[in-house]
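Blinded run. Sample ID left blank on purpose so nobody reads anything into the name before looking at the predicted structure. Input follows.
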Amino acid sequence: MKPSAKFFLFFLGVLFVQTYYAQNQTKVSLVTDENGVQLLVNNSPFMINGMNWDYIPIGTNYSYSLWSQSDEFIKKALDREMTLLKDMGVNSIRVYTGIQPKWITYIYKNYGIYTMLNHSFGRYGVTINDIYKPVTDYRDEATKKLLLDEVSSLTKEYKNTEGLLLYLLGNENNYGLFWAGSETEDFPDDAEMKKAMGEKRGRPMYQLFNEAALLMKKIDANHPIAMCNGDVLFIDIIAEECKDLDIYGTNMYRGKSFGDAFQKVKDKLNKPILFTEFGVDAFNALNKEEDQEMQSFYLTENWKEIYTNAYGLEKTANSIGGFTFQFSDGWWKLGQTINLDIHDEEANWTNNGYDIDTKNNSQNMNEEWFGIAAKGFSDTEGLYQLYPRAAYYVLQKLHQINPYQKGITTNYIEKKIYKINQNKALKRGLKNKMLLENK
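Blinded prediction complete.
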């Protein structure tokens, strides 16, 4: 074959690949006008009915990786989990880096569920020159280079992935300025200490967040970039340093209401707000027993606010959705590396926003019980079964609400939510609880 003919065939091959990816790439954008801000997926309005999702069998912890298992095993696990998520009306999941692009596409093509890809951005420390540093110093030049190189490589690898929704940077990294590790602790109350920490270590971190966003946008202009901040701590610094991030993502645990969060983000940042984590555990710390009704109550109130603050409605019109925390119980959460096959009932921090199960500032947040579904032990194949709680069936009804529906009002949404049969959901959840206990 003549060289010119070989070149021509090579050119056709490259053109075919580029055309294929261009046609199949998920294009996501944000549109802002007098009616608020809205997320568009392939030019259609998209409210994120999301779920924080992972796959961690009982007896293992954060070091377990589904993505290092065989393809056959991964498919079986995904088919079990995604079937339940799809039936609940979930249209997107939050997943940390490690998932390969082909599985993002597999989940999307088979279940219509998009993936928000989360890079922790130094939240749990960094390894530089083979030395692990548990507390990330965002002022350090080697650390900055490492993180920017990582997100650059990530964007290049995933930018053409069908089913990719967003990039998310961090996981309440502002809280990580005060403590190391992933186990939640009570937060310091000293205002002056927090302010000083924000200036000393927080501002350089947020500057690097923005630098990362600019770098990623040069590589991929079709997927917005969100940050994950803990509540609204340091929002004034964020307003100054993170102008190029597209979405303000927040892990927010305030009880039944997010309070002034929507308005504060609108006034301070003029960006859409996305709840990257929110929710409550299903264990009553006062009664020392599972409380599915309590979990359903708080989630219902939270989703009501997320929907009624959406584009085109008469409130702040800057809400683009949320990711409920979380799909299944994490039996490893309390001790991290110990008692991995015990479902601990000990609460390890206090949140008075969830006043049903706290008294006199008693600890009430049970980290191992946040699942919308309870988890069974693994079978001989290493796969486990999930047992949906009442919250699953309530969310199933909530996610049928479309705040972008023509002519919809906040009053209509509130009435629709009020009519959800909470008792029926509770009966189904308790029936599943009996099935799990009998098994």
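Unblinding after everyone has recorded impressions. The radius of gyration is 22 Å.
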